Amino acid sequence: MAAAVEGVRHRTLEANGVRLHVAEAGPEEGSAPVVLLLHGFPDLWYGWRHQMSALAARGYRAVAPDLRGYGDSDSPPDASSYTTFHVVGDLVALISDLGQRQVFVVGHDWGATVAWQLCLLRPDLVRALVNLSVVYHPRRPEMSPLQAIRAACGEDHYMCRFQVNKWSTVLPFPLHTATAAPMGQAGSINGCIQEFGVAEAEFALYDIKWVFKKTFGMRKPAPLILPKDKSFFDSLDSDGTCPPWLSEEDISYYAEKFAKTGFTGGLNYYRCIDRSWELSAAWTGAPIKVPSKFIVGDLDITYNAPGVPDYIHKGGFKASVPNLEDVVVMEGVSHFINQEKPNEVSDHICEFFSKF
């Protein structure tokens, strides 16, 4: 059941062989420009609720899907079905189903990665782009993404931990009985049986509302390293209380949806990182030419990853995205920037798109 957000309507569309749940706000038909909003992990269309209202108030038609593997959209059972090529294919079909030749695009976290790839593969479909948190990383032919992560941060980086997609009944850290509330050891996601991996096993040890409070509340501006003797949540700096920019009702919505689907769909995006790299060889060296704006918080772990600040501020980013028109670094803001600073982010989005 979709959350009741004023002015937001819901429907399901067939796109690229999967059913996508889509939330919309603003004019239903006509010439209103469409803004496609792409969420990340662990998120849903709901993470864009503030921007949807702001865009609708300015005459845009805001469209926020649950990406494949999330919420009320289909979750293909094969982990290999979550490459960026699969997800971009979904979006190409969705744009067509919406009756559009071009759309504006906004992405956050994995949604930003997918948005960069949409602009790389199908720039004809994107009028302009605003991406949050995750910069465009051009393909390195000599080294896969996971090889680069291991070289910079070691095997304990969280993306490496997320790769293990086979269930393990033995975890290298003790249970925390104060928060433990298992969600189960098997997953049926929208009718598809999914095999749990080690990350899912860790997530399932805890009360799911606490999981979201802990995740949304992280503010440590450093790479997320997970020592093998600690769980994912031991490594987060947040205390598990609800961040001030979220309500208990918000947390309950996330908890309800992920309690039904589990986290496997979203984790499979990480498990396809190197496969997406392999498939993208033909685009090695290709720049992204779509007019773009980038927004990030200075406490975001993505902004503080090794080499990223220099890449952003010393010309590398601009070389890869030659029509990058603006970079905004928000002080004192962490990863979930569109929810932590909704008004400021909405204003940046609307101001930039108004140029086109």
From TrEMBL:
SUPFAM superfamilies: alpha/beta-Hydrolases. GO terms for molecular function: hydrolase activity. Keywords: Hydrolase. InterPro entries: AB_hydrolase_1 (IPR000073), AB_hydrolase_fold (IPR029058), Epox_hydrolase-like (IPR000639). Gene3D superfamilies: alpha/beta hydrolase. Pfam families: Abhydrolase_1. Residues 33-138 form the AB hydrolase-1 domain. PANTHER family: EPOXIDE HYDROLASE. Belongs to the AB hydrolase superfamily. Epoxide hydrolase family. This is Epoxide hydrolase 2. It comes from Zea mays (Maize).
